[in-house]
């Protein structure tokens, strides 16, 4: 189900704030989610993700700001549509199925139509989540993955315009999680539902989201498509949230910063400013120290730095090699595909791709 091109966003949050005991837990949060799109509120525990979700759901009240659904106001500081009238569905880690109701009764619980219309909707959704054979079963007889499917069907039954999901897949077995997660989101996209999902796992957000809202200390520090957040992080902390990083530190002189890998251009940064140069382990390339080899600069690899292996470990799909540089004694990690386990003390050259480096003021 595709919304008209000129339709307002299905969900809009404008300058939401919420404080508890003098501490601002949600701080000037703004974003929008179009129909049929998935937005992930991503961040560490305690950053304000779940509180933001509660404000949208209507179970808590913001101190300031507005919430709109399809361009219509549902809540500000003086006007408030009750939660049950917001056309918003909820899914949480605890599926909260009613143990005394059958599968069909659980799915039908929030429906308000006649018997025939309700039964048709229940049958439709159970077929779509492949649970028709269990319509007379009770929750205790279902596996975790089957309970997840019933919870999804129940949440979708009233045709919510927005679905709020708080870590809904974290309780599932890892072998089931990817498949159920993908099926769930595909079904909601087909229904034209806007999804706002909370997670603290970057890989999950990257896999699921059309847009990521990266939160820290109650604020959205960066938002956009997963590709953009990964490849153009707003700061060092944003880069580190999506992957391990190596950090080189230096001081700017004449728009240049000197490092064991040579000088880096830092235009527009005042002289004397301390900067951090961030490189991900997978972008650090290595080569054996051969007699007479020097750290020659190349357009592809930049300038090489001499280092010694501290430790190497095989992680399954790749190997992690830990180094310390000759110059400055800087600890650096490199990820190498496959099995690569040089012994401690092995002398090697490290090279990095300058087009994959991020420079941030410290």
Automatic annotation (TrEMBL):
According to the record, the signal peptide region is: none
Tell me the SUPFAM superfamilies matching this sequence. Answer: MOP-like, P-loop containing nucleoside triphosphate hydrolases
What is the protein named? ABC transporter ATP-binding protein
Q: Which PROSITE patterns match?
A: ABC_TRANSPORTER_1, ABC_TRANSPORTER_2
Tell me which InterPro entries the record gives: AAA+_ATPase, ABC_SmlMolc_Importer, ABC_transporter-like_ATP-bd, ABC_transporter-like_CS, ABC_transpr_FbpC, Mo/tungstate-bd_C_term_dom, P-loop_NTPase, Transp-assoc_OB_typ2
* Domain ABC transporter, first and last residues per copy: 11-242
The molecular function terms in GO held by this entry are: ATP binding
Q: Name one Pfam family in it.
A: TOBE_2
SMART domains for this protein: AAA
Q: Which domain of life is it from?
A: Bacteria
Record keywords, A-Z: ATP-binding, Cell inner membrane, Cell membrane, Ion transport, Iron, Iron transport, Membrane, Nucleotide-binding, Plasmid, Translocase, Transport
Q: Which Gene3D superfamilies match?
A: P-loop containing nucleotide triphosphate hydrolases
């Amino acid at each position: 189900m595709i919304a008209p091109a000129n339709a307002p966003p299905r969900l809009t949050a404008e300058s939401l704030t919420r404080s508890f005991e003098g501490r601002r837990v949600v701080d000037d949060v703004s974003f929008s989610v179009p129909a049929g799109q998935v937005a992930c509120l991503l961040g560490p525990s305690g950053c304000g993700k779940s509180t933001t979700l509660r404000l949208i759901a209507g179970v808590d009240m913001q101190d300031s700001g507005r919430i709109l659904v399809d361009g219509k106001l549902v809540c500000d500081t003086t006007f408030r549509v009750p939660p049950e009238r917001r056309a918003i569905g909820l899914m949480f880690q605890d599926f909260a199925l009613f143990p005394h109701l059958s599968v069909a009764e659980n799915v039908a619980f929030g429906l308000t139509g006649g018997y025939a219309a309700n039964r048709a909707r229940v049958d439709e959704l159970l077929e779509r989540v492949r649970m028709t054979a269990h319509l007379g079963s009770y929750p205790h007889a279902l596996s975790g993955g089957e309970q997840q499917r019933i919870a999804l069907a129940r949440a979708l039954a009233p045709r919510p315009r927005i679905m709020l999901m708080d870590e809904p897949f974290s309780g599932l077995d890892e072998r089931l999680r990817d498949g159920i997660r993908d099926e769930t989101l595909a079904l909601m996209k087909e229904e034209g539902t806007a999804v706002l999902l909370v997670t603290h796992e970057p890989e999950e957000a990257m896999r699921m989201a059309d847009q990521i809202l990266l939160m820290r200390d109650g604020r959205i520090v960066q938002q956009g498509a997963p590709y953009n957040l990964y490849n153009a992080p707003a700061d060092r902390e944003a880069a580190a949230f999506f992957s391990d990083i190596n950090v080189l530190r230096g001081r700017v002189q004449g728009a240049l910063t000197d490092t064991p890998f040579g000088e880096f251009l830092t235009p527009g940064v005042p002289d004397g400013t301390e900067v951090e140069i961030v490189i991900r382990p997978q972008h650090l390339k290595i080569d054996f120290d051969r007699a007479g080899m020097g750290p020659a600069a190349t357009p592809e690899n930049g300038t090489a730095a001499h280092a010694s292996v501290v430790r190497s470990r095989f992680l399954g799909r790749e190997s992690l090699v830990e180094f310390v540089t000759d110059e400055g004694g800087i600890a650096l990690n490199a990820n190498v595909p496959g099995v690569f386990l040089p012994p401690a003390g092995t002398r090697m050259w490290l090279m990095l791709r300058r087009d994959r480096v991020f420079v941030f003021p410290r």
